[in-house]
Amino acid sequence: MAGVLAGLPESVLQLAYLVAGVLFIQGLRDMTHPRTATRGNAISSGGMFLAVAITVLWFEILSPVVLAAGLLVGGAVGAYLAVTVETTEMPQLVGLFNGFGGGASAVVAGAELVDVLAAGGSLSVGLTSTAAIAGIIGSVTFWGSLVAAGKLHGLVGDSPLGDTAGHAIKVVFLTAAVVAGLFLVVRPDLGTQPPLASWVPSYWVVVAAASVLGVFLVVPIGGADMPVVIALLNSYSGLAAATTGFVLNNTVLIIAGTLVGASGLILTVIMCESMNRSLTNVLFGGLDSDDGDSEDMEDIYEGQITETSPEEVVMLLETASRVVVVPGYGMAVAQAQHAVAELVELLDENGVDVEFGIHPVAGRMPGHMNALLAEADVPYEKMRELEEVNPSFSRTDVVIVTGANDVVNPKANTDDSSPIAGMPVLNVSEAQSVVVNKRSLSPGFSGIPNPLFAKDNTSMLFGDAKASMQALVNEYKESIN
To answer: 113-135, pLDDT tens digit by residue?
Structure first.
């Protein structure tokens, strides 16, 4: 249906879409660096607002009242989530956003089939093939993202099925989705009148089969692999949107979806390289610990652990000229970022050269640690990536590891039979002194012991990350006053 701007030349619509696409590209470019990320987010949001506004005004898709109500409700929910969701729960929110994007693509593709048939048109091969692809990718993304968010929030456990049964189910439902999609493409008009009945069986089989596939793809994957899964699902949501753009012949949707799909895929590759694992291994393999891990843990730790206290750690900090803080998921769970930031600020004011060593897969989503530290007003200049900070550990006086485990495990460099062999890690053991803050000696997601804890230059500060870091802050304040 024609909207209020439909009387203008078609070139006006395409020009607006082009401007929106340029804004998307510039926004994505700015988001590659923390210093300009906020500006990039604003620019991208402006591009999306332009795209939505011009589409709403050009095409009278719904009645103005219904459309306004939808925009109002959606905007209110988005604003509420942005204000109320804790930064520590951002991975779950990102997972949900990915899912909503994929689900919307599947629904819109199906709605376009309904619209064409309801108007008395025929379903072309181009329309049905792109709709089938959008339905498969969108449905997998929606349900896979819901499972990922549920696992991150502790609501969804691991699959009760074995690997063989799980893989068999995936093959069955992938085959069902593809076959139903091919049926939709090859025989789109098969069925009885009314014409809407001709697409319902095949397209809904596509959506249903792909939905089950999405669940079983993500359920077996461990929570520690969620950074990779979230990046991949983000890529899926972009691909679903781009494919839906072809269904609707909408240029700006194709541009936006392609950008999201490509950037998500690149991020997925980076995450896999950071873990020294293939994407296939993440999705279908998982990390297997050695049979002798429990015995190894006793051999490594027994009589070798040096426990410390906040008072002793502060004594180390008083004589240190350079300190590196390595955050991990434990910091996020305890919401200790503000206490950590306060300690760093005190050290900085006392003339100590202090930085953060950030591992790419620390936390539960790409950039999780950076986002938490930024929330606590830590300057971006103090956040160093693995490649930047590793060469400096040998000249570092004190390293404080708070809530991290496998990303600082030297077994990755010394044990070729280890599940994390070859994984790039932060070489914190090269520092003069290492303080590891953990609740216990429990292993990380790999399930293997960490020899770092038993090294001569390592001291264990047991306890909750937030309470421990706040104790360090209080002790350090007393020592400098």
So the answer is: 888 877 777 778 888 999 999 99
Q: Residue 183: count other Cβ atoms within 10 Å of its Cβ.
A: 18
Residue 159: left if φ>0, alpha if ψ -120 to 50, beta else—which one?
beta
User: In angstroms, rounded to a whole number, what is the distance separating the alpha carbons of residues 54 and 61?
Assistant: 12
How far, rounded to the nearest angstrom, does the alpha carbon of residue 341 sit from its chain's CA centroid?
24
DSSP 362-418: SSSSTTHHHHHHHHTT--GGGEEEHHHHGGGGGG-SEEEEES--GGG-THHHH-TTS
**Residue among 173, 275, 262, 178 nearest 219 (CA):** 173
412 CB-near residues (< 8 Å, 6+ apart): 276, 406, 418, 420, 421, 422, 423, 424, 425
For residue 413, give Cα distances in angstroms to 286, 396, 438: 20, 20, 22
Using an 8 Å Cβ cutoff, are 356 and 383 in contact? yes
How many CB atoms are located within 10 Å of the residue 356 CB? 24
Mean pLDDT over 230-247 rounds to 93
CA-CA distance, 149 to 152, in Å (whole number)?
A: 5
Whose CA is closest to 320, among 259, 395, 406? 395
User: 163, 353, 397, 406: which is the annotated catalytic residue?
Assistant: 406
Quick one: average pLDDT of 262-282?
A: 82
| Sheet arrangement for strand 322-327 | 383-385, 353-358, 322-327, 398-402, 433-438, 458-462
The Cβ of residue 31 has, within 10 Å, a number of other Cβ atoms equal to 17
The answer to whether 107 and 395 are in contact (CB under 8 A) is: no
In angstroms, how far is CA 233 from the centroid of its own chain?
8
What's the pLDDT tens digit per position in 261-271? 999 999 888 88
Predicted structure pTM score? 0.80
Known catalytic residue: 377?
A: no
Question: Closest Cα partner for 421 from 325, 284, 281?
Answer: 281
